[in-house]
Amino acid sequence: MDKPKAVIIGAGFTGCATAHDLALRGFDVTVVERGPIANGTSGRTHGLLHSGGRYAVDDQESAVECIEENLLLRGLVAECLEQNGGLFVALDESDLEYARRWVQSCERCNIPVEQVDVKQALAWEPNLTSKILAAYTVPDATFDPLRLALTFAATAQTNGARFRLFTEVEGLIERNGAIRGVRCQERTTGKSSELYADCVINATGAWAGKIAQMAGDATIVVKPTPGVMVAYDQRLCNRVINRLNEPGDGDIIVPQRRMVVIGTTSFEVDEVDYIPVFEDQVQMMRECAIQLIPAVAATRQRGAFMAARPLIGSSASGRSIARTFKCFDHQETHGIGGLVTITGGKATTLRAMAEKTADTVCAKLGITAPCQTREYPLRSYREFRGSDAYQ
């Protein structure tokens, strides 16, 4: 019996994780990506494995998703992680007032939180400002973005999935009211081809609305919401440092290898393919970082970059949009068969997003195959072999 065929558009975190899940469920999987692995938003994150603490007060659904997947990924992708923990610190009376609600919310979301003495926090992180008024530990961690994506891609590839990199989808193939494949072009050779499938999965993140429109469905509203991050060339902290207040600009400093990254701003755009890094936002990030770690003022900027969050929503804006994820069966939203879109979410929830997507695909095709990704050992990121288009 032939395997059911799936084409996944996008080789970011979600596309790679979905390829892994579907390959384990017995699918013949092809992933199409117009650039390299983690070409879009996935390759431009600051690399925080969320504890959920940032969302505990106002977005508890996302907070619960984050802490559950955080604890699971610690065992699955340890090779990609630095399990360094995080601190939420208060700098003023407003922060202290917020702390009361925050602690209660974390408890409701089952996020482990412990208040520590300010002297202890400064002993752990001597570059922290001496002005902190309170400090709490959370189980944050950091990851290498490319390695995280490659770990799932390598495992999917080992189980038969194919990756066609530098290959852009130019259109969807429609037959009898259903999507049956994609038309694509290899960007290095100009060669065009068609790939047929029982189901096409749109895992393009901030570009998900554009792919859905190729099928004639304009009901998937994704707000590309970029944020600017700035890297500095010294590792000025070993834990993730969070400002203890409502989510805002420059409220987190993430240690990455021999540097730190401050994040992030939040604004909306219509065109996601080219978003400039605004110098005024870079300067604002620096000023916010200095409030938390004064030594940033004497540290050289290594670089500034931008990522476009794929937030779901049509009326709310910016930071008020939930960070949870949604999986859309276009048969239900617009009467279009053969197409599923997964978008929203965070890097921390990539495995859960893939599980939901694979469940939806299997239900559409009448396939009974349980998810195995909670326990299945992942391969090393070093084992990914590159694009199958050239093999």
What does this protein look like?
It is built from nine helices and 20 strands. It is α+β, with helices and mostly antiparallel strands. The chain has two domains: 5-42 and 146-221 and 322-390, FAD/NAD(P)-binding domain (3-Layer(bba) Sandwich); 85-141 and 223-312, D-Amino Acid Oxidase, subunit A, domain 2 (D-Amino Acid Oxidase, Chain A, domain 2). The longest helix is centred in the N-terminal third of the chain and has 17 residues, at 60-76. The radius of gyration is 21 Å and the shape is elongated. The model is unreliable at 314-322 (pLDDT under 50).
Main sheet overview: 8 strands, mixed
State the CATH topology of the largest domain: FAD/NAD(P)-binding domain
- CATH class of the largest domain, named Alpha Beta
The CATH superfamily of the largest domain turns out to be FAD/NAD(P)-binding domain
Quickly count the helices: 9
Give the end-to-end Cα distance, rounded to a whole number of Å.
26 Å
| Count of spatially separate domains | 2
β-strand amount = 25-35%
What Rg is obtained from the alpha carbons, in whole angstroms? 21 Å
Instruction: Count every beta strand, where a strand is a DSSP E run of 2 or more residues.
Output: 20
H-E order: EHEEHEEHEHEEHEEEEEHEEEEHEEHEH
Helical coverage, percent range: 25-40%
Low-confidence stretches: 314-322
Under the CATH scheme, which architecture of the largest domain would be assigned? 3-Layer(bba) Sandwich
Largest beta sheet: strand ordering:
6-7-5-15-16-17-14-18
Shape: elongated
Structural class, please? alpha+beta
Oligomerization = single chain
| Average pLDDT number | 92
